[in-house]
Specification:
Elements lengths: L2 E2 L2 E2 L1 H12 L6 H9 L8 E2 L16 E2 L2 E2 L4 E2 L1 H19 L4 H12 L5 H16 L8 H19 L4 H25 L1
Antiparallel strand pairs: 1-2, 3-6, 4-5
Helix pairs in contact: 1-3, 1-7, 3-6, 4-5, 4-6, 5-6, 5-7, 6-7
C-alpha cells in the first residue's frame, strides 16, 4: 500500500492483489518489487468515505501517536477474495481488448511529456470506450473497475518497465472514479 498522508487505501491493495492472482501476469517478480519499495503493505486496510478528497485524487488520512490509524477494517482475506472474483471476470474481458488499445496506452505511458493527469484521462477514455461494449448484464462500475485492472496487466505485460507508472496511474483513476463503488463492494 502506498502511504498517503498516513492512510492506506484499499484501491492499492485491490489492484495489487488482482495483478498477483491474475492469470497471464508475466511481471510477478517486478510486482513484488512494489512491496519492497513501499507501494504495498500487508494486513488490514483503511477505508472511510468520509475522508477528504485531495486535489491529486487521493484521500487524506491521519496518524495517531506516530501509528497509522485504520478506520473500519477490511482484512487482507476480503481483498483477496474480491480480487480473485474480479480476476475471473478479467480473464473473460482480456480476450475482448484489442492489441491496438493496449499499444496506444503503452505509447502514452512512454511519452514523458504527458502529465499524470493527461495519462489518467487517456486511461479513462480507454476504459469508458471498452465499457460501452460490455454486455449490459454487469454493473457499469464493476465493468470499468475490471477493465482498468485488465488494461494495467496488459500494458505492463507489454512493457514491464512501466509497472510503477501504470500502477500509480490506475490507482489514481480508480480512486477518482470508483472509490465509492469499492467501498460499497468491501462493505457487502
Amino acid at each position: 500500500m502506498e502511504q498517503i498522508s498516513g492512510s492506506v487505501q484499499p484501491e492499492h491493495a485491490l489492484l495489487y492483489t488482482f495483478l498477483e492472482v491474475s492469470s497471464d501476469c508475466r511481471f510477478r517478480d517486478q510486482l513484488h518489487s512494489l512491496q519492497s519499495q513501499g507501494f504495498v503493505l500487508k494486513g488490514s486496510y483503511y477505508y472511510d468515505d468520509e475522508v477528504e478528497l485531495q486535489t491529486d485524487g487521493n484521500r487524506s488520512g491521519h496518524m495517531q501517536n506516530g501509528e497509522l490509524v485504520f478506520g473500519p477494517e477490511v482484512n487482507e482475506e476480503t481483498i483477496r477474495i474480491i480480487a480473485a472474483q474480479l480476476a475471473q471476470i478479467g480473464d473473460q474481458f482480456d480476450r475482448e481488448i484489442k492489441a491496438r488499445v493496449v499499444n496506444d496506452l503503452v505509447q502514452h505511458f512512454l511519452n514523458e511529456n504527458l502529465s499524470g493527469e493527461e495519462i489518467t484521462q487517456r486511461m479513462s477514455e480507454a476504459v469508458e470506450g471498452l465499457a460501452r461494449a460490455i454486455p449490459s448484464g454487469m454493473e457499469q462500475e464493476k465493468a470499468m473497475l475490471v477493465l482498468a485492472m485488465v488494461l494495467t496487466k496488459k500494458i505492463v505485460n507489454t512493457m514491464p518497465s512501466l509497472l510503477q507508472r501504470v500502477f500509480s496511474t490506475t490507482v489514481n483513476y480508480i480512486s477518482q472514479q470508483l472509490h465509492n463503488y469499492i467501498i460499497r463492494m468491501l462493505r457487502e
